[in-house]
Design brief:
The complex is a heterodimer of chains A (114) and B (116). Chain A is built from no helices and eleven strands. In chain A, a hairpin with a 3-residue loop joins strand 4 and strand 5. With 116 residues, chain B is mostly beta strands. In chain B, strand 7 and strand 8 form a beta hairpin. The chains are: A mainly beta (114), B mainly beta (116).
Chain lengths: 114, 116
């Protein structure tokens, strides 16, 4: 158990809908990262938050947004869903100091868009 | 651009044998970190080992060791004495330590199958 929690574990929805994925980082970790894993794109970095502020952006679509709350949990919002958004979405956390090496991954949320 | 390449889509090994999973990386930054993660069929990502670009010695964690050859830009994972539970997808990843964000760039992965 990495200490990172993600809910829900599975999510099935229809095209055009909006969903919210939730992540609670390990106790004390200030940085939260969101990654998307799909068969065609592999594992891709989406966005990072550090202590409530957006720190870095990767290949995140404009239809997707995220935020990190004062209690450090984070939410990833996916809207106007398309079939191609079906993927495993991971949240990871780290202490935030670049010299601290590990990123700990949550169990992931498997999103299926029908 | 920064890139991680894993050229072996699949590897097969027998129990108790050693196996090497290849990883090459491309970056012009002098400061970076290299990681290996394991993803079993259940889907979770499990951190295995880390190597910093300035580390003089190869990293080791139990049965895992990282064969770091900086001049060749390779960071191969060596698993000694393979076990059935090692069957999984293995990802090599790189973090650019001198960027404001420290997100990971992943390779495409190698599927390891261990047989008895």
């Amino acid at each position: 158990d990495s200490g990172v929690t993600q809910t829900p574990k599975h999510l099935i929805t229809a095209t055009g809908q909006r969903v919210t994925l939730r992540c609670s980082p390990r106790s004390g970790d200030l940085s939260v990262y969101w990654y998307q894993q799909s068969l065609d794109q592999g594992l891709q970095f989406l966005i990072q938050y550090y202590n409530g502020e957006e720190r870095a952006k990767g290949n995140i679509l404009e239809r997707f947004s995220a935020q990190q709350f004062p209690d450090l949990h984070s939410e990833l919002n996916l809207s106007s869903l398309e079939l191609g958004d079906s993927a495993l979405y991971f949240c990871a956390s780290s202490a935030g100091d670049p010299s601290y090496n590990e990123q700990f991954f949550g169990p992931g949320t498997r999103l299926t868009v029908l | 651009a920064q890139k991680i390449t894993q050229t072996q889509p699949g590897m097969f090994v027998q129990e108790k044998e050693a196996v090497t999973l290849d990883c090459t990386y491309d970056t012009s930054d002098p400061s970076y970190g290299l990681f290996w993660y394991k993803q079993p069929s259940s889907g979770e990502m499990i951190f295995l080992i880390y190597q910093g670009s300035y580390d003089q010695q190869n990293a080791t964690e139990g049965r895992y060791s990282l064969n770091f050859q900086k001049a060749r830009k390779s960071a191969n994972l060596v698993i000694s004495a393979s076990q059935l539970g090692d069957s999984a997808m293995y990802f090599c990843a790189m973090r650019l330590a001198n960027q404001a964000g420290t997100a990971l760039i992943f390779g495409k992965g190698t599927t390891l199958s261990v047989s008895s």
